[in-house]
TrEMBL record:
<dbReference type="GO" id="GO:0043856">
    <property type="term" value="F:anti-sigma factor antagonist activity"/>
</dbReference>
<dbReference type="InterPro" id="IPR002645">
    <property type="entry name" value="STAS_dom"/>
</dbReference>
<protein>
    <recommendedName>
        <fullName>Anti-sigma factor antagonist</fullName>
    </recommendedName>
</protein>
<dbReference type="Pfam" id="PF01740">
    <property type="entry name" value="STAS"/>
</dbReference>
<feature type="domain" description="STAS">
    <location>
        <begin position="1"/>
        <end position="110"/>
    </location>
</feature>
<dbReference type="InterPro" id="IPR036513">
    <property type="entry name" value="STAS_dom_sf"/>
</dbReference>
<comment type="similarity">
    <text>Belongs to the anti-sigma-factor antagonist family.</text>
</comment>
<dbReference type="InterPro" id="IPR003658">
    <property type="entry name" value="Anti-sigma_ant"/>
</dbReference>
Length: 112
C-alpha cells in the first residue's frame, strides 16, 4: 500500500494506491490518524488507484467521518473506481461521505 499526502492550505489530500484490506488497514489508519487528530481542515481521499476495499478499509473511513464530524471537519472521497463503489453500495454507506467524481471537484469544494 502506497500512501501519499499533500497539504492544500489547511486541508489534506491523500492518494492511496493498492488494496485497502485487513493486511493494510492498520497501516493506513495509523498514517491518517495524525491528520485526523491534529489537522485543521477537511481531508480528501483519492481512491482512483484502490483496486479493492474490504470492510476493514470502510471501517477506517467511517471512523474518520465520526471523528472529523466532532471537530466540524469533513471527509471527502473522490475518484471511486467501480469495484470499490460496488462495495460501498453493498454496505449502503456511501451517503455518509461527500463524494466527488474528480479530484479537482473535491478540491474546489474546500473552504479557504
Amino acid at each position: 500500500m502506497e500512501i501519499k499526502t499533500k497539504k492544500i492550505g489547511k486541508h489534506t489530500l491523500v492518494h492511496l494506491n493498492g488494496r485497502l484490506d485487513i493486511t493494510h488497514s492498520d497501516e493506513v489508519e495509523a498514517k491518517l490518524a495524525d491528520d485526523v487528530q491534529n489537522g485543521d481542515g477537511d481531508i480528501i481521499i483519492n481512491l482512483e488507484l484502490i483496486s479493492y476495499i474490504s470492510s476493514s478499509g470502510i471501517r477506517i473511513f467511517v471512523g474518520m467521518v465520526r471523528e472529523l464530524d466532532k471537530q466540524g471537519r469533513k471527509l471527502k472521497l473522490c475518484c471511486i473506481t467501480p469495484p470499490v463503489k460496488k462495495v460501498f453500495d453493498v454496505v449502503e454507506l456511501l451517503d455518509l461521505f461527500e463524494v466527488f467524481e474528480t479530484e479537482q471537484e473535491a478540491v474546489n469544494s474546500l473552504s479557504k
